[in-house]
Amino acid sequence: MKKIAGFVLLAGILLTGCGSDNDWVANVQAPAQYIGEQELPITIEIKEQGQPVTGLQVKAQFEMKKMDHGKVEAMFTDGGNGTYTGKVKLPMGGEWLVNVNMSNGKRTEEQTLQFKTERVEAK
Question: What InterPro entries does the database record attribute to this sequence (predicted)?
């Protein structure tokens, strides 16, 4: 019985040590409106424990939340201060999911985020 209790305690300590305190947290910022057939500027902000994370390789895959328009991939450039910028040509406005892949060469993390943008016609 003591061996089982010890194992459960050890497992709990290990799981607690693998918590989300050191996870990268991404946030996507996209314009609320864009003109169709043009690239949409998108910024992904990445922090760890509230501090900006720089020096990452960031790529993302965009897909519409409620429709199938395929997937749009984009690479992002480190703009400093935890911001990564890129341009994406989306086929239409609406609710989008973005799967963000972040890597520093030793560690890789993925997050799925959402944003909404509305297409407006050029005048």
Answer: Ig-like_fold, YtkA-like_dom
pLDDT digits (tens, 9 = 90+) for 11-35: 343 333 444 556 999 999 998 887 7
Rounded Cα distance between 43 and 59, Å, is 12
For residue range 84-111, list pLDDT tens digits in order.
999 998 888 899 999 999 999 999 999 9
Distance CA 114, CA 66 (A): 12
Contacts of 11 (CB under 8 A, 6+ apart): none
The first and second tokens of residue 27, run together, are 């946030």
CATH topology of domain 21-120: Immunoglobulin-like (2.60.40)
Question: Checking DSSP bridges between strand 108-120 and strand 72-80, what pairing results, if any?
Answer: unpaired
Amino acid at 60: A
Domain ranges of the chain: 21-120
Please report, as a single letter, which amino acid is at residue 121: E
